[in-house]
Amino acid sequence: MKPAGMGSTLVLRLYMGLFFAYMFLPLGVMVAAGVNSYSPPSITVWQGFTFRWFAEFWADARMWSGLVNSLVIAVAVMALALPMGLSGALLLSQLGRRSAGIAYTVMVSPLLTPGIIIGISTVIFWRNLGATAGLFTAILAQSAFIASYAMLMFMARLQRQDHTLEEAALDLGATRARAFRRITLPFLKPTIVTAAVIAFLQSFENYNTTIFSIGGNHTLVTEIGARMRFGISPMINAIGILFILVTVICAVVWSLLRQRERKREAAA
Amino acid sequence: MTKLFRAFGVPLSTVILMFSSIWILGLIAAPQLIMIEQSLWRMERPEGAAEISVQIDGLYNQLDVMALDRSTAEAGTDATKRAADLAALDAKEAAINAEIAALEESESTPVKVYTLANFGQMGAAHLAIFAKTIAASLAVSAIALVVCYPIAYAVAKLETPRTAAVIMLALVIPYAINELLRIFAWQMILNQNGPANLLLGLVGLDPVPFLESGTGVFVAMVYAYILFMVFPLYNVLETLDGNQVEAARDLGASTWNIHRRVVIPHARPGIAVGCIMTFMLSAGSYAVPYIMTRGTAAPWFTQLIYNRFFEATNWNVGAAYALSLLAVCTVFIFGMMRLLKVSLKDIAK
């Protein structure tokens, strides 16, 4: 591509530099306050480096119970959203144009609905059936929209499936169920893994839907939100540093894997 | 449906149908419908409650009159007649008391009445917050679009693949970092004693109450949701054939015309997705106003919804408020699809 001219390239570079400064400087502020002994979290008053806030987090029972709840919810959401998403995608692949259109609209609608509405409608529904809000309603509310992500991923994968293998298996006398288990399922395996990871992360990180559907209980993220409001202890910043570390590692691994996959595809 | 059974066989199809209906009916449709239903009724004093209370007053008057009768009866000299009179009065009194109890019960037991009144509960103050929430969310969308378009275009079309991969990674990291942490960073920056006010102080300005005035909510919202615009734009611009741009330039089109006639028309689905996501996330955000105002600035509409449910515990009005928000988002989605001529299939990618 021919450059549009040195001047405009320079402006664009400068603009991008500004944008990335805008993206990363606030995070830098948060990280710095997490290792500053001054409390409340601050970078304008520096009192020396410390790991104290990490120790405080380690000793905080409510954070740990929140973490346990987050993990329970995330695992349950994976177990529920994946089969629902896959079933939805398989169902769509066999419906007529009209009914597929309607079913598809309903299935993607949770992605276009504000999270708080999914949360609160789940709580209203279950209260009418006599159940109070808690981990259970949080799991169902999260699954409603996380299954949509799974469905879209499975649908994209299924559209690329070559059906000749399946047909050959059926010709050779395999039952439908067996052909599905031995051919379609292995074909879907990479998507199942990705969808599971995404479902787990989406669930673990969710705030808006969860805060409206969890009732008196809490997850790690809702507890962090409650503490943040008053910004009292830099412990929040220490947790932030841990989150950032995990995110950076995951992002780098993900991008390396993607690059390798692209190279393999290019070679094939 | 028969096609499904033919494709997967009976047992597997049954499982597919079971999971699909749990999801579609149980987790999506039923809760939404129940929420709509909840917004359409409220418990009211039963009809004719006013007449019933008049009736009750009348009965109490009768009791007062009977008290007089009783004193007359007690003053009587004939012992047997006195006992009989008193017994009759007792029986009558008991009957009246029972009737009063029954009437009071029906007067105070509220009945479920279907009405649109819950939507009318939004007074001028709440309506203003509703309007402010929508206007601010539209502004977040617009700012995100203007800021992100050059970034997405540059990464997709101007950089070498290697540089583009590095830039994408640098965009994914802040995108993947938890929303709350990104908001909290701005709470620190805009705090009374934060770096923003420190800088203002260095140039001799008075500290600005960013958090207390609600400005902080807007600033953090743009920051928190802006990346939801970059990725959809990048995805569509990546598929734009560079030769089209080249051809337009060779034919003498200006940069402005290239974008207006070639690039932007191609980017329509990405623009739609980006605007829908940023608008919906902003209008439906609870985290940003919750953390950024610390309860000092005027609330966001989502906070009103939360309060209806969990503090004022008026679920019917809460459902009406939630439904109003959902309606605005739905109108926005269809409006964008109409405006940019894209379908739902283009959107969900």
UniProtKB/TrEMBL annotation, chain A:
Membrane topology: Multi-pass membrane protein
Domain ABC transmembrane type-1: 67-254
CDD domains: TM_PBP2 (cd06261)
InterPro entries: Bact_Polyamine_Transport (IPR051789), MetI-like (IPR000515), MetI-like_sf (IPR035906)
Primary location class: membrane
A Pfam family this chain is assigned to: BPD_transp_1
GO cellular component: plasma membrane
TM regions (residue ranges): 12-35, 71-92, 104-126, 132-152, 186-204, 235-257
Domain of life: Bacteria
Location in the cell: Cell membrane
Keyword hit for Cell membrane: yes
Family: Belongs to the binding-protein-dependent transport system permease family. CysTW subfamily.
Keywords of this entry: Cell membrane, Membrane, Transmembrane, Transmembrane helix, Transport
Keyword Transmembrane helix appears in the UniProt entry: yes
Protein name: ABC transporter permease
GO biological process: transmembrane transport
From TrEMBL, chain B:
SUPFAM superfamilies recorded: MetI-like
Subcellular location(s) of the protein: Cell membrane
Location of the ABC transmembrane type-1 domain: 130-338
Tree of life domain: Bacteria
InterPro entries in the record: MetI-like, MetI-like_sf
The keyword Oxidoreductase belongs to this UniProt entry's keyword annotation: no
Topology versus the membrane: Multi-pass membrane protein
Alphabetical list of Gene3D superfamilies matching this protein: MetI-like
A biological process from GO: transmembrane transport
CDD domains: TM_PBP2
Keyword Membrane tagged: yes
Pfam families (UniProt xref): BPD_transp_1 (PF00528)
Annotated Gene Ontology cellular component terms: plasma membrane
Transmembrane residue ranges: 12-36, 129-152, 164-181, 217-237, 270-292, 319-340
Keyword list, A-Z: Cell membrane, Membrane, Transmembrane, Transmembrane helix, Transport
Family: Belongs to the binding-protein-dependent transport system permease family. CysTW subfamily.
PANTHER family documented for this protein: INNER MEMBRANE ABC TRANSPORTER PERMEASE PROTEIN YDCU-RELATED, INNER MEMBRANE ABC TRANSPORTER PERMEASE PROTEIN YDCU-RELATED-RELATED
Protein name: ABC transporter permease
Organism: Tabrizicola oligotrophica
